Amino acid sequence: MIDDVLHFPEFARGTVWLVGAGPGDPGLLTLYALDALKQADVVVYDALVGDPVLALAGADAVLEFAGKRGGKPSPKQPDISARLVALAREGKRVLRLKGGDPYVFGRGGEEALALVAAGIPFRVVPGISAGIGGLASAGIPLTHRNVNHAVTFVTGHSAAGDVPDSVDWEALAKGSPVLVIFMVLTHLAEISARLIAAGRPADEPVAIVARATLPDEAVLETTLADAAAAARTADLKPPAMVVVGEVVRLRQGLDWRGALAGRRLDADPLGSGGEG
């Protein structure tokens, strides 16, 4: 029935597919991603792709780890790109599997350009970014018309492992009502201090979402001033995202996972009396 509605593209030998694995829960894979897993000869996966997703690969598929972890020995990006090219030139159907979406802080663009330079055909299969799907799972909407009309995605970790100097933190503090910060736990204290120094309220709501969409998902609600200390006390570990802004208050009414466990939700978390 599905095949009658969807025409799955052929995964040709000697090609590379850059595929988003979504935020973690294998149920949030796209149909194209699932089909690619079944067809691939080699799956080159990153550190954010969990075992339940990898278990969906074909029985004969070779699984190759090519993940990066801050502060730990990791494959260098040029080596990963070269490996994709080499596998494709061997006539393999190469699936490069990335957490979230390949083009959202996933270096998918760098790998795709390396394939172009080598003359390797490729396809991109978008995935649900953790910055969208992970927050929805945690009960936090990215936008809400009574709160914000803009949101900014930013990384808290440069290629060198530092706070990115190329990011204008002062401009973000003043101009974006909601910030979603990836790869931030290591530098959360410094980034919070920069945002507060640029004018963000110290008591602004913050949520830290770790292992989003997975059974052991953890969500910590705190404030901008207390976020780093709260994360240490809770012993939160990557992968984790931080969302800064008034939309965090909406979790009191939208924590659907909590409701399944018995939490009583607030239909008016902003105290607006139901306006809007």
UniProtKB/TrEMBL annotation:
<keyword id="KW-0808">Transferase</keyword>
<comment type="similarity">
    <text>Belongs to the precorrin methyltransferase family.</text>
</comment>
<comment type="pathway">
    <text>Cofactor biosynthesis; adenosylcobalamin biosynthesis; precorrin-2 from uroporphyrinogen III: step 1/1.</text>
</comment>
<dbReference type="GO" id="GO:0004851">
    <property type="term" value="F:uroporphyrin-III C-methyltransferase activity"/>
</dbReference>
<protein>
    <recommendedName>
        <fullName>uroporphyrinogen-III C-methyltransferase</fullName>
        <ecNumber>2.1.1.107</ecNumber>
    </recommendedName>
</protein>
<dbReference type="InterPro" id="IPR014776">
    <property type="entry name" value="4pyrrole_Mease_sub2"/>
</dbReference>
<keyword id="KW-0949">S-adenosyl-L-methionine</keyword>
<keyword id="KW-0169">Cobalamin biosynthesis</keyword>
<dbReference type="InterPro" id="IPR003043">
    <property type="entry name" value="Uropor_MeTrfase_CS"/>
</dbReference>
<dbReference type="GO" id="GO:0032259">
    <property type="term" value="P:methylation"/>
</dbReference>
<dbReference type="GO" id="GO:0009236">
    <property type="term" value="P:cobalamin biosynthetic process"/>
</dbReference>
<keyword id="KW-0489">Methyltransferase</keyword>
<keyword id="KW-0627">Porphyrin biosynthesis</keyword>
<dbReference type="GO" id="GO:0019354">
    <property type="term" value="P:siroheme biosynthetic process"/>
</dbReference>
<dbReference type="InterPro" id="IPR050161">
    <property type="entry name" value="Siro_Cobalamin_biosynth"/>
</dbReference>
<dbReference type="InterPro" id="IPR014777">
    <property type="entry name" value="4pyrrole_Mease_sub1"/>
</dbReference>
<dbReference type="InterPro" id="IPR035996">
    <property type="entry name" value="4pyrrol_Methylase_sf"/>
</dbReference>
<dbReference type="InterPro" id="IPR006366">
    <property type="entry name" value="CobA/CysG_C"/>
</dbReference>
<dbReference type="InterPro" id="IPR000878">
    <property type="entry name" value="4pyrrol_Mease"/>
</dbReference>
<feature type="domain" description="Tetrapyrrole methylase">
    <location>
        <begin position="15"/>
        <end position="227"/>
    </location>
</feature>
<comment type="pathway">
    <text>Porphyrin-containing compound metabolism; siroheme biosynthesis; precorrin-2 from uroporphyrinogen III: step 1/1.</text>
</comment>
<dbReference type="Pfam" id="PF00590">
    <property type="entry name" value="TP_methylase"/>
</dbReference>
